[in-house]
Design goal:
The chain has 145 residues and is mostly helical. Helices cover 82% and strands 0% of the residues. It contains five helices and no strands. The mean pLDDT is 95.
Length: 145
């Protein structure tokens, strides 16, 4: 069983570490700009860092659900690879947004594209599971025949 999920688990841990890094960047920015919680507004530099962290944490549960569904129902290796691409795109998004709001656009579009691929892989994998287990129709056998 563990050999079927170890890559997904590794990408999940990397994602959690990335989120922790983003949280720490907000804490550091609060200290630099003198903004105490619960305030969320301040200089544009702080607000960009704060928004980048919040946006990333808002998408994280969606990413995790899709990563695991695609990995369990479609292919672990593909899902893990896409997961690494997503995490890299989110890192580029964070760093781009930190520098300038316009520099966040290319990474956010790329990470959204990766999420759509994970959605497609999840949907195809779940559809195949339902068809093969409940209808007795194995699409993979039909395609290779």
């Amino acid at each position: 069983m563990l050999d079927q999920i170890h890559l997904l688990a590794a990408v999940t841990v990397l994602g959690v570490l990335e989120q922790a890094y983003f949280f720490l960047q907000v804490i550091y920015a609060r200290r630099v700009f003198g903004i105490s919680p619960p305030k969320i507004s301040g200089p544009p530099e702080f607000e960009r860092i704060f928004r980048a962290q919040v946006n990333s944490s808002e998408y994280f549960p969606i990413f995790l659900a899709l990563l695991w569904q695609a990995g369990l129902f479609f292919h672990q290796g593909l899902a893990a690879t896409l997961g690494l691409l997503y995490l890299y795109a989110r890192y580029c998004y964070f760093m781009g947004y930190r520098a300038s709001s316009s520099e966040r656009l290319a990474p956010i579009y790329f990470s959204t594209g990766v999420l759509w691929i994970l959605i497609a892989a999840s949907a195809l994998g779940i559809l195949h599971f339902f068809l093969s287990h409940y209808v007795g129709l194995n699409i993979l056998q039909l395609l290779t025949a």
